[in-house]
Input
Amino acid sequence: MTSEELAQTHAAAFSQTRPWSAEEFESLLSQTGVILCGDAKSFVLGRVIAGEAEVLTLATHPDYQQQGLAQTQLETFLVAAKAAGADCVFLEVAADNAPATNLYLKNKFENNGHRPHYYLRQDGTKIGADVLRRAL
Ligand SMILES: CC(C)(COP(=O)(O)OP(=O)(O)OC[C@H]1O[C@@H](n2cnc3c(N)ncnc32)[C@H](O)[C@@H]1OP(=O)(O)O)[C@@H](O)C(=O)NCCC(=O)NCCS
Output
C-alpha cells in the first residue's frame, strides 16, 4: 500500500476534516514505532512509544464501509501493538463521530478524558475530542 493510496482513502473517508497528504503519511511511516495495518480499502495507522500505543488514524473507504473491515484492522493493530511492547492504547475521536465511537466502545475502549475544540472542521467550526483508552 502506497502513501498515495493511504491519502486517497483518508480523504474519501474524512469529509469534514483536513485530509492528510501522501507526504504526511510518508513522513509518519518513516518514524520509529509506527505500525500500519490494512490496505487501501481500510487501514489503521498507529505507533508504540515507551509501552503505550496510540491510534493516529483509522479509515475505511466509503465504498467498503460496514463490511467489518475496520473491526478486522483494529484487531490486527491491537495484537501488533501488544507484540511491540504496548500495555495500553490511547486514541482521540471527535465527540460527534458515532460510527468510530461505536467501533471503539465495542472493542473495550473506555472514556479517559475530553479535549474541547480539538478538531478544526473544513467549515471553520471546532469539535471536541473524546480521549479513549484500552488496556492490552
Ligand atoms: C469509523 C470507520 C472506520 C468504520 O469503518 P467500517 O469498516 O465501516 O467499520 P466496520 O464495518 O468494521 O464496523 C465495526 C463497528 O463499527 C461501528 N460502526 C461502523 N459503521 C457504523 C455506522 N455507520 N453507524 C454506527 N456504527 C457503526 C459498529 O459498532 C460496527 O459494529 P457492528 O457492525 O457489529 O454494529 C468508518 O466509518 C470511517 O472510515 N469513518 C470516517 C473516518 C473516521 O471517522 N475514522 C475514525 C477516526 S477516530
Summary: The radius of gyration is 14 Å. The chain is about 30% helix and 35% strand. The longest strand covers residues 110-120.
